[in-house]
Amino acid sequence: MQSPTPAFVQLTSSWQWAPPREVLRTYALAWLPILLIYMVAVETDGIWTRGFNLFSAMHGTVRNLGPTFLLLLLLWPLTGWMEARRFGAARQIAVHAGTGVLFAFAYYALLWLLIAAESGVAAAERARENWFIWQIQIGMLIYAAAAGAFAAYRAVQRARQEAAAAAQAQMLLARTELAALRNKLNPHFLFNTLHSILALVRKDAVRAEQALFGFSEMLRYLLDTERSGEDQVLLRDELAFTEQYLALESIRLGDRLKIDWQVDDEALAASVPALTVQPLVENSIKHAFNPRSEPGTLMVRVQLAGDRVEIDVADDGPGVQLPADGGLPPGSGLGLPTVARRLALRWGSAASFKVQSAPGAGFQVKVAIPR
């Protein structure tokens, strides 16, 4: 499956002349206080003699700042061009220094031409002599503010898109690892179950035939979940699969296996990764029932606890000495570590996987996952 192109790659591989609407909206809003202050400033000389003339103030403001407003929009494609080529801070400053000078001359020339076209060359020259330097200084300050704002907006967007791309890559990695772990569990389950049936064939062919029919139903569950492409299944279906597995083992173990089901019906609609409960049960069968001839009890308890589903699998077998660091005991095989890892990948710290055991005290696995 082809992975989608990260958004930040699309951003930097092609830049556009026109800013997006949200940038244009913010750009226009940022200009409002500047325009209001400028309207008062251009009318200051006449306020005491003829009063404040709104039309005159607006006319002077649009004429003097209009070119700046439009020219500075060219900073959007300029910042995009530098971003697409991964310019460093020093190169960006150098480019802005050069384009700032060009902007100053362009703004100066446009303003002179507008005044000349409206009031004549003599008026334009008088304006240049009186306050063109002041206009240029304002233009340069606004240039610096606009360049910084556009660059900052692009940097924030790029950071967000890179973070989203990284999260997507992490999610794909987790899914890949989950699929790999499940692919390990499937043959592990098949091998162990077929080994149990093979042992039964040598002792009781009739029971072995019954076991094979049950095994075919279990294979259908595995194939259905494999075809769907979904790792999650209903807890109801996972428990039914586990029950089929225990029915198969009961054919082999006979009266030695007693099963105590304690299931809260309200928890059955919760979702769990496929092959979550069965490996826990298989662990008890392997270590508590296979090595000994005495009868024993396997307890499977499922209950709701607030916003979590708790799954406990316990046996009254010989138990083991757990490591001091609280990890899994040696010889745990593939099932327990794989289930623990899948839960961690799916829910992180929101899920828990705990083992309780001691010599002569049985073995218990306690799993808690979000509903």
TrEMBL record:
TM annotation in the entry: 23-41, 61-81, 93-115, 131-153
PROSITE patterns xrefs: HIS_KIN
Name the UniProt record assigns to this protein: histidine kinase
Keyword Cell membrane: no
Pfam families the UniProt entry points to: HATPase_c, His_kinase
Keywords from the named record: Kinase, Membrane, Transferase, Transmembrane, Transmembrane helix
Superkingdom assignment: Bacteria
EC id: 2.7.13.3
InterPro entries in alphabetical order: Bact_2-comp_sensor_kinase, HATPase_C_sf, HATPase_dom, His_kinase_dom, Sig_transdc_His_kin-like_C, Sig_transdc_His_kin_internal
